[in-house]
Amino acid sequence: MREADIVVVGAGAAGLALADRLTRPGGPRPVPSVVLVSAPPGPARPAERTWCFWEPPGGDYDDAVVASWERLRVRAPGGAVVEARPVPLRYKMIRSRGFEALLRERLAGRPGFRGVEAAVAEVRDGRGGAEVRGTTAGGAPLTLGARWVFDSRPLSRLPPARTVLLQHFRGWFLRTERPAFDPRAAELMDFRTPQPDRGLSFGYVLPLGAREALVEYTEFSPRVRDGAAYDRLLGHYAREVLGVGAARVVAAEQGVIPMTDAVFPRRAGASVFRIGAAGGATRPATGYTFTAVRRQAAAIADACRAGRVPVPPPAYSARTRAMDAVVLRALDRGRIDGPRFFTVLFGRCPAQRLLRFLDGESRLLEDLAIGLRTPVAAMLRTVAELPLLPRRAHHRCAFPAPVSLPVPDPAAHPPHAVRPPDEEEQRP
Q1: pLDDT for 28
Q2: Where is this region: Disordered (predicted)?
Q3: How far from 409 is each of 215, 239, 354, 356, CA to CA, in Å?
Q4: CA-to-CA distance for 302 and 327, rounded, in angstroms?
Q5: Which region among 55-69, 198-212, 224-238, 389-403 has the lowest average model confidence (pLDDT)?
Q6: Given CB 3.0 to 4.6 Å as the disulfide criterion, which of 155, 255, 335, 371 pairs with 378?
Q7: Domain interval for residue 238
Q8: DSSP secondary structure code for residue 417 in this structure
Q9: pTM of full prediction above 0.85
Q10: How many structural domains compose the chain?
């Protein structure tokens, strides 16, 4: 028995965006009935997290935007600043709680939509469609039948890959006693941080005002650090590099994003599809996901309305994935200087062209022009090497999702009291 035309498993960015697009009125066919399955309160429900992307003002989700910036900055290790103003684009920040509230308010008024809470144990093909099996928050068994199922749950294991780096980070929402931030600009990459032996590290600053900002320490490297190391490095960045002075940590978050040239299958059965990060929506060389999630959702909704099999399209073209594979391998092997690589790209490429490239929407000639700004010899060596490398299963079975952290005691852990890391702590 079918409970709906479509079941969407998971109410993160991918699941909510897809449910929103599927149930919008209009089009040549009736709006499909949709059930959105959310994890019940507990460890299976993702913690609040931050998503960022760029687009012009007046976007679909502007009501959930916490802040936006028209200026983007990258800082070289020596402190030199590269600033871009990609008008009409703005860099926008959304918090997951606000995004969920906005989308649930929209969905609540749409006919054919229903939301349920359940821990999903299995998604599989069934007779004439697919089935979702799980357990409700009250412990009762739940079975949902549908023509199509879109599953956004994280994979338990990465597909085989030639290169895997991890983007791992910890961020503090800081409130300072005196003005310490420039609210006009987002600092995308500040390379005035201790660099690991493999990969790179940088600071990331999203000002919410002159005295408030999300400040993160981020690494692209093979291994994550322990919690104390993140706090030391983040405290060092806030105190010694940014000079924020006395400040209070009002919230904290942490996460790990796989950066890999693995191929993510988007179809898990005749009627079961993967979406979001599990469906390859994360850009391998940067970790950005939100824009690709929206593209996937729009394409799936268009296919459903046209009566086609709604296989999610690739989030990025084969050319984009090939270029990312080269960058990841060269960075992992130490053939390129990561801070210099990204600083030069931002400094020598027109801002709008570079942002189109980072979104995977640039044209061939634009990609070639950007490629000429990179270390050509190192890239060509890597291009020649990649076809000879086997794809191997990764030894990690799972990657932690973003988590909310306990707010540090301001009396015990204010940023100005954290010591800079010593030589040993700088190594991953």
Answers
A1: 67
A2: 405-428
A3: 17, 17, 40, 41
A4: 33
A5: 389-403
A6: 335
A7: 159-263+317-336+375-428
A8: G
A9: yes
A10: 2
